[in-house]
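Homework help thread (please don't just give me the answer)

Our assignment gives two proteins as sequence + structure token strings and asks us to describe the second one. The first is just a warm-up. Here they are:
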Amino acid sequence: MQAPIFTPYHIPPLFIATAFTFGSTLPFFNQHYAIPDALPPYIDKYPPALLVLATQEGRTIVTGLVMFTLYYQGDIRAVDKFLGVVGGVLGVVDLYVCWKAGFPGKGLLRLAYGMAFSAWGLGGLSSGGQ
């Protein structure tokens, strides 16, 4: 397989892969700065939670790298399937965690983003509906 010819339909999965891969590196460089975006601010006072954050972000980096790998192998249908599953699952998990932490608005927004990307992927839009 070879890298596909780029089309604008590839922008959503490449955006997510980039955000997952590079955006998730922040806790490795400045955990305290990353907390407000990822977790409630009071977590910053509990150092073991920062280790959990770094572990979680490591897994998110791997998710982004898998998407890039599938894309550059030219398997756009696999990218769509992966985006569909990951977007939906992470959207629901984010909603649950944010809701339990007392941030229901942030959770609902993350759910909406996750479901939008999931619908894109499950609809096969990156691969042209093939």
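The one we have to describe:
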Amino acid sequence: MGKKEKDITILCYWNGNIVEGLEGLCYDQPPNKAVKVKLGLNYELLLNKMYSITSLDRQQFRIKMTCRYPSVVGPNLKYIVIPVRDDDDVDIMFDALTKHDELSNIDLYLETEILSSDIRYASNQDEDDINEKLDFGNMLDEEEDEKIALVVMILLN
């Protein structure tokens, strides 16, 4: 089996925060979903996979991906975060597994951004579904969440 054919496990995290831990940066929640992808997958296919597992509409939300990446500091392995924005970043993300034999998976942190303040939802979507999509990893404080929910409710009426 060639290098590009190997299956890799990606642990996907959202609805939490990146925090400082004993081994460097980590997430304050357990993973929401584990997915298998082929080593060598490109950025666009990885992003499509993230939209698929989160059930977010690409026309309404932008997903930002951040990889937890191992960095050797002296004799210690510490983790840093690297934004994943293109094919080169995806290749670097996969390099972690080939450079560090003790690693068995990749941690990928997901955030969302609303693309437009003029969100239009289909009339058959209920308010709970809208609120659930807004809460997905926006990393906003409660006051900002309430303001956005209020704007969406106004737009729906």
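TA reply:
I won't write it for you, but here's a hint about the kind of observation we're looking for: Confidence is low (pLDDT under 50) at residues 121-127, 147-157.
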